[in-house]
Design goal:
By secondary structure, this protein is α/β, with parallel strands linked by helices. The protein is built from 15 helices and 14 strands. It is globular, with a radius of gyration of 20 Å.
Length: 359
Amino acid sequence: MAGVYLSYPFCAQKCTYCNFASGVFPAEEARRYVAALGCELRLHRWEWTPETVYLGGGTPSMLPLEDLAALLELVPGQPWREATIEAAPGTVSAERASAWKNCGITRVSLGVQSFVETEIRRTGRRHTAQIVEREICILRERGLNNVNVDLIAGLAGQTPASWAESLDWIERLRPPHVSVYMLEVDEDSRLGKEILLGGTRFGAADAPGDEQIAEFYETAVERLARLGIARYEISNFARPGCESPHNLKYWRLEPYAGFGADAHSFDGRTRRRNPETVREYLEGRPVESTPACLEEERFFVGLRLAEGIEPETAEWRRYETPIRRFLDDGLLEFDGQRLRLSGRGVLLSNEVFQEFLLP
C-alpha cells in the first residue's frame, strides 16, 4: 500500500518538547512555502496511486482551507483509504472540520500530549481538557469519528496521579486510536537540552526520570488494554480495525512519497530526504538520496510491531547470536513462527534494534 506525506512545519508557537524541524515563521514565508509545496506535487512523477495521505508538521490544522483543498487536489487516488491531518487542540472548528471532510480527510490526529493544565502550560500549549472534549465532539458531529489522541509520558511535572488523570480522559472520550510517546531527551528540543544541561527552565528539574517514564508507559499499556485499545506498535494503540494503515506502511516497508521540508520518501529501493528547514526547502537545496538497506531495516522497523516479524532462513543465520541472546534475556519472544519484542523488550527496544544494524 503506497502513501503520501505532506509536511507543513508551521506552528503558532514552538512547544518545549518538540524536536521536529518546525516553528513559527512569517506569514509571507508560509505563503511561499505553500506555493513551493504545490509546485513539488505538480512536478512529481507518480509511479503508483497512493491509498493513504498524511498531513503532518508543524500544525497543518492551521493551513488555510483553500490552500489545503488545492494541495489535496494534486494528490491522486481520492477517495483515499485513509487521509489524516494533525491538529493542535484549539484549532478545530465546525467550519474547519466540515472543510476537511469535504477535502477528503477521514482522520484527525490531535496533539493533546496531556490533559493536565499545569503540564500543558509548561509545554507552551494553551488548551484545556475541556477544549479537547469540545473539539472531539465537533469532529464527531461532522462525521470525522476516526480520531487519534497523542500523549507524552515524561513531561515536566508529570506524576503517577497526573498521568492517571490523562488516562481517565481517554476513558471518558473513547477515541479509537491513541499514541503514547516517551519523552525524547535530546538537544533538538528546548526541554531536552535543558534536561541534559541540568538546568531548570521549562520545568526541566521536575521532569520524571527514565524509570518513572517507563512506569508511566507500562501503566498506559495496561490501562488502554482494559479499554479495548491494544498496542499494535510501540507507540500506537487502537481498537480492533482502527489501526492506521498509513502508519503501518512505515513499519512494513511499503512505499511512500514525502513532500515539503524534511519530508522523507521510500520507493522500496532508495530513501530520499528533502531539505530539512523551511529556508533550505525554499532555496531549492538538493534532495538527499541513499540506498535502502532492507536486510537491517526489516528487523529495525518490523520488531516495532506487536505482530513482530517472521525471520527468513538467511536472517536466522545472520542474526542467530543476538536473537539467541535476547531470547535468553527475555527481551524477545518466539512462538515457533514469529519473533517479537517482549513487554520488557519494548522498554529496551533501542538496545535490541542496534544489534541488527549491519557493520
